[in-house]
Amino acid sequence: MSDPILSVQNLRVSFGSGETKVEAVKGISFDLMPGETLAIVGESGSGKSVSAMSTMALIRQAGGKIDGGKIIHDGRIDMVTATEPEARAVRGNEIAMIFQEPMTSLNPVFSVGEQIIEPLITHLGFSKAEAKTRALAAMDEVRIPEPERRFNQYPHELSGGMRQRVMIAMALVCEPKILIADEPTTALDVTIQAQILWLIKKLKADHSTAVLFITHDLGVVAQIADRVAVMQTGSLVEIGPVEQIYQSPFHPYTRRLLNAVPVLGTAVAKPSVKATDIPMLDLENVSVRYPIRSGLLRQVKHEVLAVDQVSFSVPKRTTLGLVGESGCGKSTIARAVIGLAEPSSGTVRVDGTDTSTLSHEQRFAFRAKTGIVFQDPFAALSPRRTAFDQIAEPMIIHKWGDQPKIRERVRWLLNRVGLSDQHLDRYPHEFSGGQRQRLCIARALALEPDLVIADEPVSALDVSVQAQVLELFSELQRELGLTYLFISHDLAIVEQVSEAVAVMFMGRLVEYGPAKTVLSDPAHDYTRNLLASIPVPDPAKPMATPQLYDEGRKSPIAPRGAITEPIDFREVSTGHFVAAA
Q: Nearest to residue 37, comparing CAs of 223, 185, 232?
């Protein structure tokens, strides 16, 4: 049996000192073997990322301190006692890391090509020309189309999935012995996620790279891991082969995590709600276009058809799940509904009112009917304002009531979303991810809206916290009669919360109908491809080779003023419609 490529022995890591000292990692031990994928799972705050950063001797830069233990790399160097020059020689060369958020991990002022060649020049002494040749080969290997053109682009010019591929190319360009992937697919759509997972699996096989895979997505773990280590509040509570962990978990915490995983096809269909004559939300042939300026005079010759001739309705007190890949127009529709994007054509009606007919003053007052919950609660909350101020702000702006009335409303909202009065004066950084999302939900409900738009509200949350937040959404809908437009790339969650589903592709609606029907018997090839890309939380079911869907449609970029026709739909079963070929 070969020796481990990485051996972590009784690692202890803390932050702060004295009374404020927090033990983030409490004496964990594990080995990573050559060519093995070890997944570390657990909730936020369990110590997963801290452990990973410690293996690269990066924890000091993050304000942490290693209190004890050893991290033996390749049997020859202890990363705990290594000097910074020694650690730097290993970091990025023999151990590489794919970080969770590529947009914040990539430098915005350098082209992606410059960032990929940097480790080659720094660690391997390549010339710029040699480094570019190797970088282009790495970009091709991670399936980045047109690598020569992409080489000179900047991070903001690439999609989320493409930026993640750049991060992977940068991590693998020096052919490291260990790849640490920290939540590399959390914010990606299922089709892009499937491609990234397949790519990591293939590169591991091709280069015998050992992978330390950190995630809270247990469906992903089942598809990619050889062994699983489960962490809870800084401690390692269970470790073993992936089959054993999934089939007969020993620790109660592991069982709780597995039970919280939403599985497509297991949700109970939501009881039907009697449709009203006037739907809460009605879109009729809505298009949203963004101009593309080019040339010396910055003329507009082309437009991006972000949303193209989309029509659907959401009955009152029901939930419509809106799904599709990044860039398909889901969030643009949300922005059009709340007035942050102006439709180029078509009609948006909220509770029977055509929003385009409203004056500025009427639109301002009308916005109280609609609340929105964003994907990233930390970015959505001001770091300088307390929880009370964040929730009270929309009520103060809309002159909802006097100070005592507003304070009482804020206290009621906080308690209703599972927080208490003691949280009133805390700042966002003092809350966990799940608590911050609860704050965002409370703020969205501040003005007693009838319609709530939830834009990827649980994608960044752990499975157990995710389950709590989804249950909160359901409770609030039952009690307050809310209508939801629920935007998500997780189809299992959409099935759980929605009565109906609408599927979008490249700005157009391609299929819609009852959630159970669409997700169990899809009629459009694109919907089938989405469903086939979902990772199954069962190690016995191997990952299928991901397939890219290409309808043969043109790019969503069209000449300025180009006229497009609404899509014809055919009814394949009661209430189930698919775009006609």
A: 223
